[in-house]
Every structure is written in C-alpha cells, then in structure tokens.
Amino acid sequence: MTSEDVTLKAATAADAPAIRQLAHDSWWTTYGGYLDRGQISLMLELIYSEASLLAQFETGQSFTLAMRGHTPVGFTGFQPKPAEPHTMRIEKLYILPSEQGRGTGKLLINHVAQAALAGGRPQLELNVNRNNPAVTFYQRLGFTVVDTVDTPYHGYVLNDYVMQKDLRSPNAAPLYGI
Description:
The chain is α+β, with helices and mostly antiparallel strands. The chain has helices at residues 16-31, 37-48, 50-58, 104-118, 134-140, and strands at residues 6-10, 62-68, 71-80, 87-95, 123-129, 144-153, 156-166. Helix content is 33%, strand content 33%.
C-alpha cells in the first residue's frame, strides 16, 4: 500500500479523540529512544488531551487527518505564523509507525504547502527535535535548518531545529514526486 490509498480529511473538533489517539500511538515510538518518559507523558497530556486539542481548534489551528479507508493513520496541525504573514507553521505532523515510508508524511506536507500557497504564504516552517530521524526526511523534502533552539518547557528543555522551506525557490524540492 502507498499514499495513493490514503485520503485527506479536514478535521473538526469531533475528530479530537482520533487525533489524541494517533499522537499516543506515534509518540512513544518516535521519542521513546531519546526523551524521558516523563517528558513524553507530560507533553502528550498538555498538547494532546481532548481539552487542549479543542482549544487549539478554537484558536485557529487547522488539522488534517490522513485516512486509509476509514482508519486515521496520521495527522498534521498547521497555522499561519503570528507576525510573519508569509509563513505557514507546521505545528504537528505524526504518522503511525506502520505507515511511515509509504508517502503519507509527504502527502500531508504537500497538503499544507498547497494551503500555504493558497493563503499567500510561500514559506513553510516547523520545529523538529535535533535527535529525531525525521530531520533527514524534512531535508529530503527541501527544508533547511535555519536555527537551533533550546526551549525550556515545564522543567524539560526542547532541543529543536527550526526548519524552513521556501515554496517559491527554484532549488526547493517539488511538492510532488519527491
């Protein structure tokens, strides 16, 4: 199976339980090898509780679910970057471990890129943990590291790269066929 078997669905507040479950099903595998279990648990509760997700919907974050048939297999959350009208932030992008390598992540990023361009925002931006193998994935898609940040977070430190992709750049990887 490939991403051709996946459809995208604009998520609504009613999808908060599915997004929460996808986060729980993907975070332990994604971060378990290099983040403290307490940090993972805390972040899942603070960011992915149903109440938190509903608040994120209310404050303007858009969510898209990747569906294989009737089963959610991944999601993204994105919104315009405050005070930078040309930038769309990918706040969340998680794919079930069983779905990785099938093109679903690329499909979701392409979706956000199309939404960004449609809204006059020709730049994508995201943060990714510096130890996350996804850094290489994002680089293959044309993102570059523009900053290294260490952000205090409830007694922990988020060690991230800030990565950006200029959707207008002739040197940027294309949106499709990557």
